[in-house]
Amino acid sequence: MIPQDKLDAVVSRFRAVETEMQTVSDPDDIVRLSKEHAELKPVAEAAAELTTARSDLDDAKEMAEGDDPDMAEMAREEMASLKDRIPELESQLQLMLLPKDKADNAPVILEVRAGTGGDEAALFAGDLFRMYQRYASDQGWKVEVLDSSESGVGGYKEIQASISGDNVFGRMKFESGVHRVQRVPETETQGRIHTSAATVAVLPEPEDVDIEINDADLRIDVFRASGPGGQSVNTTDSAVRITHLPTGLIVIQQDEKSQHKNRAKAMKVLRARLYDAERARIDAERSADRKSQVGSGDRSERIRTYNFPQSRVTDHRIGLTLHKLDKIIAGEALDELIDALTLEAQTAQLAAMNEET
């Protein structure tokens, strides 16, 4: 049972933030308090609802022991209802009180790459990117393509994009891994089902304070950008290759005609990759004694299969199958998978915390 003083503290902090918001004028303070207010509001409302339910249960117990038989009967019915409702409220609030990943509100670098399967894999990579693009649009997020390498059949060998908005990483972080597709390619004359794959990486973009990069650790090369098949698309040395010497990470950007813009985009991607690597190292240390099905971030892990002939999508981490592939690939029903993955991760986190206590 969640202690009442913890519920009171949540509600008290929420009210204090509301009061402070009415007095501050500094833009940074306004942004900070608005963000905290938005995060606290659903938790404070749930805490207040649980507090009220507990109080109602105490009142009902008193009435059940009274002299009026009709009132006592009504009170006993109320008690039965509240005894069912209170555990539900406590479970919901426990999940809301779990420690938040500080990167949940961060924008992300989305990277989609064709895997095994040749042209069909490139087409599928394009399908996945458009799925995330439409999903982002539905969420009110902004998508900016950073770099892309198109295939000759209309898909992508690889594509990178920056996605910004509210709680982007929090919603997208379980999409990293290998996505497999089973369908009949348009070029298949005998109707045979082919299996192809694409790899998705979702990297949170760090704030300046999260990670530092020393100029001495970078080797920066410039060269002429080229298009599909090696044809020149730029007559100046505008493409940029940045190598992070300590880790060997290499980032190439050539979509912009400006070397300055390509360098800025490359640094953005490099920072995200270094930040992601550090997060993975820390997560590995924390989970050395236990493994979670969700959110391992292993890029080689096959996480989902999209079967077109049977119109089904299966997420292998939680064993969930949905027979609505058309709506998922259109981005409309992707939330159903994300919600299920989020709940599974929260439940595992709650169980781990209970074991520790």
Automatic annotation (TrEMBL):
GO terms for molecular function: translation release factor activity, codon specific. Methylated by PrmC. Methylation increases the termination efficiency of RF1. Residues 224-240 form the Prokaryotic-type class I peptide chain release factors domain. It is found in: Cytoplasm. InterPro entries: PCRF, Pep_chain_release_fac_I, Pep_chain_release_fac_I_sf, Prokaryotic/Mito_RF, RF-1. The modification N5-methylglutamine is found at residue 231. Residues 283-303 are annotated as: Disordered. Its main location: cytoplasm. GO terms for cellular component: cytosol. The keyword DNA damage does not apply. PROSITE patterns: RF_PROK_I (PS00745). Keywords: Coiled coil, Cytoplasm, Methylation, Protein biosynthesis. Residues 43-92 form a coiled coil. It comes from the Bacteria. Belongs to the prokaryotic/mitochondrial release factor family. PANTHER family: LD18447P (PTHR43804:SF7). Peptide chain release factor 1 directs the termination of translation in response to the peptide chain termination codons UAG and UAA. This is Peptide chain release factor 1. It comes from Parvularcula maris. The gene is prfA.
